[in-house]
Design goal:
This protein is an alpha/beta fold. It is 44% helix and 19% strand. A hairpin with a 4-residue loop joins strand 10 and strand 11 (306-314). Helix 6 (95-134) packs across helix 9 (187-197).
């Protein structure tokens, strides 16, 4: 991180405004252009300068590109934190800059409202499908209570929420985690999650588009990995579990919430379930083969479906395997213009 590049990057009113906006929430280039009242090409040029100075990060989701302030956990964190304090101080001390920031945040409110409206529309279109499935098993609240209790005996640390869906697990554990990365393959679900999570600190939550069979993260990146009602979509569950193990630090934990084995064949067609749940023996073998030491499962009986919680601890790799499992370079997170 070059201090010369940082000061050059900040030597422009638009880029100062951009940094204040990104400290509040992640924004697409289109949303940023909307707030700044400038064209997308012009905003993209400013964004490029901030990214070149390592002050901001791009993330692609489909055809959209999202921007966020550079993660404070990266190299140069003290400088980034000091810059954030400097801009906050300048906003307090300079009336003109304060008014500009106030106007920008007013426009952010409209963006938040639009995201909420889009999320509500999505829920309205799919409510009947979800209600049909929920009627078969124990309430989500009871599942969340049991999962929270099961994970309470150790710090969550850095969390990966695989298949975040609406973002509920990320929202549930945000206050106890150091940071959470919420990953989903479906762009529309990510937009729903973004609306649900936009009240949380931008520096703590990151949304990433990605596939659970090829996670875009370096090895041993997370302390806790969650797969909540996700694994039944896997045709070969060994693949996502192997990937989950790769990104989990030794001694870290995996928590899998899914259905016990059942015979509701209609879920294949109506809800695209590839697997009709798992037996404890199947899950034990899958977790063990992936590199986790499973603990006793928790069973939550519902009307027709039993929800199971399986938790496992990541075993240290044998020394002879370290070369084969060396951390690979992190794949740049895919970002998008939502």
């Amino acid at each position: 991180m070059s201090i010369d590049a940082i000061f050059k990057a900040l030597a422009d009113p638009t880029r100062l405004r951009t940094m204040r906006l990104l400290s509040a929430m992640e924004l697409s280039v289109g949303e940023l252009a909307q707030v700044l009242g400038q064209s997308q090409p012009r905003v993209s040029r400013h964004v490029g300068i901030l990214c070149d100075a390592n002050l901001a990060e791009r993330r692609r989701e489909g055809s959209w590109v999202f921007l966020r302030a550079t993660n404070s956990g990266q190299a140069g964190a003290p400088v980034l934190a000091a810059l954030d304090r400097l801009l906050a101080t300048w906003e307090r001390e300079n009336a003109d800059f304060a008014q500009i920031c106030t106007d920008d945040r007013r426009k952010l409110t409209a963006i938040r409202a639009a995201r909420d409206a889009n999320a509500e529309d999505y829920f309205a279109r799919h409510a009947s499908e979800w209600d049909e499935l929920r009627a078969l098993h124990i309430s989500d609240v009871q599942v969340e209570e049991q999962l929270s209790t099961a994970l309470r005996d150790a710090p969550l640390g850095a969390v990966l929420d695989i298949g975040t869906g609406t973002g509920r697990m990320t929202e549930l554990f945000a206050s106890d985690a150091e940071r959470i990365v919420a990953l989903d393959k479906n762009l529309e679900m990510l937009r729903v999650a973004r609306a649900k999570l936009q009240h949380l600190p931008a520096a703590q939550i990151e949304l990433v588009q990605g596939d659970f069979t090829d996670l875009p993260f370096a090895a041993a990146s997370f302390d806790t990995v969650l797969l909540h009602q996700v694994l039944h979509f896997a045709h070969d569950p060994a693949i996502p579990l192997s990937e989950a193990a790769r990104v989990t630090r030794p001694g870290g934990r995996i928590a899998i919430v899914d259905f016990a084995s059942h015979d509701h064949e209609e879920l294949r067609d109506r809800h695209q379930h590839a697997r009709l749940g798992y037996t404890d023996s199947q899950m034990h073998d899958l977790m063990r083969d992936a590199g986790f030491a499973p603990s006793e499962p928790i069973a939550l009986e519902g009307v027709e479906l039993i929800v199971k919680i399986w938790i496992g601890e990541r075993r240290p790799l044998p020394e002879s395997h370290t070369s084969k499992n060396a951390p690979r370079a992190a794949i740049p997170a895919k970002k998008a213009n939502l």
